[in-house]
Amino acid sequence: MRVVLGVSGGIAAYKACLVLRLLTEAGHEVTVVPTAAALRFVGAPTWEALSGRPVASDVWEDVPQVPHVRLGQQADLVLVAPATADLLARAAHGLADDLLTSTLLTARCPVVVAPAMHTEMWQHPATRANVALLRERGVHVVEPASGRLTGADTGPGRLPEPEDIVAAALGTVPQGSTHDAAGGATGDLSGRHVVVTAGGTREPLDPVRYLGNRSSGKQGYAVAAEAARRGARVSLVAANVALDTPPGCDLVPVETALELERAVTDLVDGGGVDAVVMAAAVADFRPARYAEAKIKKTHGDGDDSAPTIELVRNPDILAGLVAARGGATSPYLVGFAAETGDGTGDVLSLARAKLARKGCDLLVANEVGVGRTFGQDSTTAHLLRPGTEEIRTVGPGSKTLVAQAIWDHVAPSLR
């Protein structure tokens, strides 16, 4: 695959050397396009030694080959890491005052930018507006990490780890494909219809309160986005998620477990669904009765009583899908086990029991809790299959990395 690696002038430019090494070791043909400022941090000989190719940095070099047009036209992927606030601004406003921004304008392949800057610059309204505009135009923006910045500063704006940047970037290109000049592509899920659930269901108690959970939907959205990148038609059933819908996905918004069950069942019963990935955190219970008015506190002297809320079980959606397909092998069913571990077992032993109980084709298990997995950008997941003790552990890494591992396993089973 032909990759253009753009590097803009920030201190994090040194990390781009590791990004370059990962791309070349994976067998990709990488052309580095540094800005003039980037070359003050890392010199051209370093890029040339690591890529094995001449560095392209100026529109006036190799003029007969028209590099400011050719590089973008012929690339299968353009990745900018790091992307400074200045680079984001110039790209958002369509400036083409150097080779890198010219390449961004001519590219018709996936474009990925990994911002890196001080927290104040990242949070400035101008930068936020530029990022929103780039995303609106289809550019994939990798959220910066939080951590140590230049000097003693700490906060959001740190360049993500090279492994996560590469995983996110390669995930935008459908598997086994390259892009033509029109941006068309096919992948290993081309022609398949998959259903992905995401987020956390909410079970209303009264008009203002509900029973819920901490799921943000990030993992489910990563799974849906990866399926779309690989060419699938994706129906994304999302429960209470405040994220942008991934490109190429058909959104089906729901709130409760019963609504999610109905949406998934309708899609499967409609026929043609090849796989269902149940990444949503579905509430096990719901209130037996919904209060039409807000439940009030009592106000009598010395009365500190609280209402008793009776709960009833929600349906087991995954088990229902397994039962409905009977002895058939389609649709392929993937379950999730969000476990904390307890007195009866650790995360993996509980996950094995759940896999046996559910009867699905693949179970993705991870440990959850306050500040762990739910709402986070990184995770560690364990992939379990029936009939084998083998476990594939993915991470710690990005949720995109986990999504890629899931479809790497599922796609061959759908052929």
From TrEMBL:
Q: Name one Pfam family in it.
A: Flavoprotein
Keyword terms of this UniProt record:
Decarboxylase, Flavoprotein, FMN, Ligase, Lyase, Magnesium, Metal-binding, Multifunctional enzyme
Reactions mediated catalytically:
N-[(R)-4-phosphopantothenoyl]-L-cysteine + H(+) = (R)-4'-phosphopantetheine + CO2; (R)-4'-phosphopantothenate + L-cysteine + CTP = N-[(R)-4-phosphopantothenoyl]-L-cysteine + CMP + diphosphate + H(+)
Annotated Flavoprotein domain ranges read 1-170
Its name, as the record gives it, is Coenzyme A biosynthesis bifunctional protein CoaBC
This entry's comment on the bound cofactor is: Binds 1 FMN per subunit.
Checking NCBIfam families in the record gives: coaBC_dfp (TIGR00521)
Q: Where is this region: Phosphopantothenoylcysteine decarboxylase?
A: 1-193
Origin organism is: Serinicoccus hydrothermalis
Q: Please tell me where CTP binds in this chain.
A: 284, 294, 315-318, 336, 354, 358
Task: Provide a GO CC annotation, any one.
Answer: phosphopantothenoylcysteine decarboxylase complex
